[in-house]
Amino acid sequence: MSKTQVADIDRSIYDFTKSEAGYERYADGLTPDIVRAISKKKDEPEWMLDKRLEALETYQRLVMPKNWGPDISGLDMNHISTYVSPKTKQAKNWDDVPEDIKDTFERLGIPQAERESLAGVGAQYDSEIVYHNMREEMAKQGVVYTTIEDALHSDYEPIVKRYFGKLIPTDDHKFAALHYAVWSGGSFVYVPAGVKLSYPLQSYFRLNAQGAGQFEHTLIVTEDDTDLHFIEGCSAPKYYAANLHAGAVEIYVGNHAHMRYSTIENWSKNMYNLNTKRVTVGDDSKMEWVSGSFGSHVSYLYPTSIMAGDRSSVEFTGITFAGQNQDLDTGCKVVLQGSGTTASVETKSISKDGGINTFRSSVVIGKHADNARATVSCQSLMLDDISRSDTIPAMDVRNKSAQVGHEATIGRISDDTILYLMSRGCTEEEARTMVVNGFANPVSKELPLEYAVEMNNLIKLEMEGAIG
Asked: How many beta carbons lie within 10 A of that of residue 11, not counting itself?
């Protein structure tokens, strides 16, 4: 029997697979028939099918920009299945989830997290949501947390139609067009005016199939005077065949509101992670991004914040860890349009074993953004002399009253620091791990507890050479 899964030293919490026997899997490649089949399976309204077919034409027309980002020539859509689904209906009761899928999410800690600290949780397995539930007290306040497919077959279809695909246009880039052609799964969140959730909502995306893509769409709409924390987690086992993640996140934040979006992306190292995230923010509101990228062979990930409202603010806190055979091209874009808007960007990257980290930032100050303020700080830590870290900032300032600053530092672990810690009883490996954890701490402390623990465990595995 041919070997399909790569065996690492100890990554058992993530690198386990389940049989695809009995699953529904569409043919590899991308054709109008496949797009129509996905839409028919979901019994979508005609306007959504039209959008899919338009997106397919756009995908076929657009070309990849030259000399941009890591090489993705190893990604061949003719060998990627855009739809794979276990033959199970979406469950609202955990006991109704099939045992093999339930075991997957149990091992990833999802049910425990739901019981302890979440207002609602959604779990996607390959192309479909297999479990979705929300606390009754949240529903009584008018909060909606469901799948987009379910929202399209409810009284919320007009809201979906109003916002879906408007913030991230189909022709934004080639893989945005691909996403809209074959999207499946994801979440729809609506928080009515005046509602402030005491607990987070969480979605977890698991890609089990090899040679497949995951294309979930998350649409979040929060009205005025609201507060929401949304948590996203991702993982996949490692195969020799290429996998693709091309999801999309669209967030609309009202006035006098607060939104936090936390994510740990722990994809396997055969994954091409070409994700798109974007938010628009109203008056006197605050947006927070907390992002950790630890997996994938190649990443293109640049969450965009459009500060349309006056006195709106955004904070972006991120960390990436690139090891052997990883080229992570990440960063963020901030567009300050309203007066008195502010942006604070703090990122950290860690490279080892020849890993490549590239940080890109784009700050755009509009001509009406009087007294706008933006600061960008990028710190890079390289653990050897064969890794690489680059910083590529871009600033477009069109208002004389704006103040913009950028700083970047790249360094290595000091031998003196390692020797000092070893003199206090640490092994060299423990000393290096301690320094890296200290470097990553500003990001770790911003994550929900279970994700901070996960991040620290991932760093420990990387430092041990367990993920290679």
From this structure: 20
Mean pLDDT (the chain) is 84
Of 346, 378, 344, which is closest to residue 359 (Cα–Cα)?
378
- Mean pLDDT, to the nearest integer, of 180-197? 96
pLDDT(183) > 50: yes
**What is the Cα–Cα distance from 405 to 303, expressed in whole angstroms?**
19
Residue 291 near residue 319, CB atoms below 8 Å: yes
**Of 326, 289, 322, nearest to 458 (Cα)?**
322
Q: State the pLDDT at residue 157.
A: 96
Among positive and negative, which fits the CA dihedral 440, 460, 355, 13?
negative
Mean pLDDT (whole number) for 143-157: 94
- For the entire predicted model, the pTM comes to 0.88
**261-270, 286-295, 365-374: segment of lowest average pLDDT:** 261-270
pLDDT digits over 11-21, tens only?
Answer: 445 554 554 55
Other beta carbons less than 10 A from residue 358's beta carbon: 22
Identify whether the C-beta of residue 383 lies closer than 8 Å to the C-beta of residue 350. Answer: yes
Residues 247 and 215: their CA atoms lie apart, in Å, by 4
Report the candidate in 36, 282, 47, 297 with the shortest Cα–Cα distance to residue 158.
47
Structure tokens at 25: 């899997």
305-318 tens-digit pLDDT = 999 999 999 999 98
